[in-house]
Amino acid sequence: MMSLALFYILAGLLVVAALTVVLQRNVVYCAMALIAALFLIALLFLTLHAPLIGVLQVLIYAGAIMVLFLFVIMLLSPSAMEQRRGWWSLGGVAALLLGATLIALMAGREPPEGPVPAIELFGSPEMVGKSLFTDFILPFEIVSVLLLVAIIGAVVLAKRGP
Amino acid sequence: MIVDIGIIAVKAFLVLFMVLNLAGVLGWIERKGSALIQDRIGANRASVFGFAGMGLVNTLLADPLKFLSKEDFVPPYGDRFLHTLAPCMALFPALVTFAVIPFGDVLVIGDRVINLQVANLNIGILYIFAMASLSVYGIVIGAWASNNKFSLLGGVRGSAQMISYEVALGLSVIGVLLVYGTLEPQQIARSQGNLIGDLLPESASFLKRFIGWLPAWGVFLQPLGFLLFFTAAVAETKRIPFDTPEGESEIVAGYHVEYSGGKFLMFFAGEFAEIVTAAGLMTTLFFGGWQVPYLMRDGFHFPWGVTWLLPHLAVVLLQVGSFTFKVLFCCWLQILLRWTVPRFRYDQVMRLGWKMLLPLALANVMVTAIVIFAAQ
Hints:
Oligomer: heterodimer
Distance between the termini of chain A: 62 Å
Strand content of chain B: under 5%
Radius of gyration of chain A: 20 Å
Helix content of chain B: 55-70%
Low-confidence stretches of chain B: none
């Protein structure tokens, strides 16, 4: 009961934050609303007893990626601050299609009877680390090569100069 | 149920109360300390009923009163909402981080065992970094909302600096996590109650006699890690020698140049609360947390065979007192640094972060991992 009430409060705030991201015309406000949305998703993860994913959500998305977003926004000229409106119809159609698909997918399923209890260490740093370095070692290494390529690319672009 | 919630509320209130008040006292220590270092008298003007009290009354009472009674000025072309939000975002992370820092072992009252820590998370260290990564927003938003070029410069400098040093800060802790094998701050503090002699293998009898009597604190096992962490933490709190976001000789006062009154007080208190939090972290990770050397749960057990049993309450009080003393020591270390070293230039700050701290932290992680692997 308590957790359900908490879910509705968090989900309601999340919808408000997400709508602000889309509807607000000031880009800095959009970014702030996006940070709030990411933070609320992290709280949702906490209510689902997945603290690791919640904390990583804050650490990586809200704490690192959004800072870079804001960094770029602050360096833009004030005239670029106002969003242009022109893609509304296309965006609306895409949103409707996505919503319809999700509803169609969910309508055919029975909601599970009770929450399924997770095993003791599920989602703990130990388990995540173990599966990263055993079952998923190849994707893990490929991602590190990808990041290395991105870093080298950034260095090359920065060194080129005018 | 009600009692449990009550205990958590009391612990949260106590920790918040201590952090905020220590932040206030630090403001006084900074003035008196700087006066001591620079051979001045320092704050001694305000007095209550003729009692000046070395200026302590001045800072703790007169300062906040004066700040709160000043006009709250918002620049006419600034953004009023974000201008108000920014100081809150600067103060918030500094205050919530202390929730996972343990200030004592366990307090046993009857059959109730109270863990002297507000929130015991199994990912405590990650939580600390998540909250620390949010502290950028206070200065970025404050700088942008002021609509002032000096502010914006300060904000851009601050965000770049804090992102850069977060990397070194995170990597410098990895060594400690490897040594103690856990992400729980309480567990890290408990592990530091061992002696180095217990960790060394039997074959290293020379080392055992030489340093075996030392407690297994992070500062002894990870000396380079401590230096890196300390440097990165000072850079994260944006204090001299890393105060380029403020840089009053170049960009007036950086991100808070357009702030006055209570909002400025929040930035000010946030900075000192960050010092307290950084000190709490240093204590927990590198100075044994609440540990007193050789003090076990039932009293002192000295390595030369002497035992001195103590009642439980005395042990708990000694532990909390030890934690407080170490936090004060680390705070004083940071304040001492501020009045000893001049400000770095911005490019020097960046070079130190990326070209010295980061490679050293990576090397520290490598060497620690190899040593632990070889010792197994």
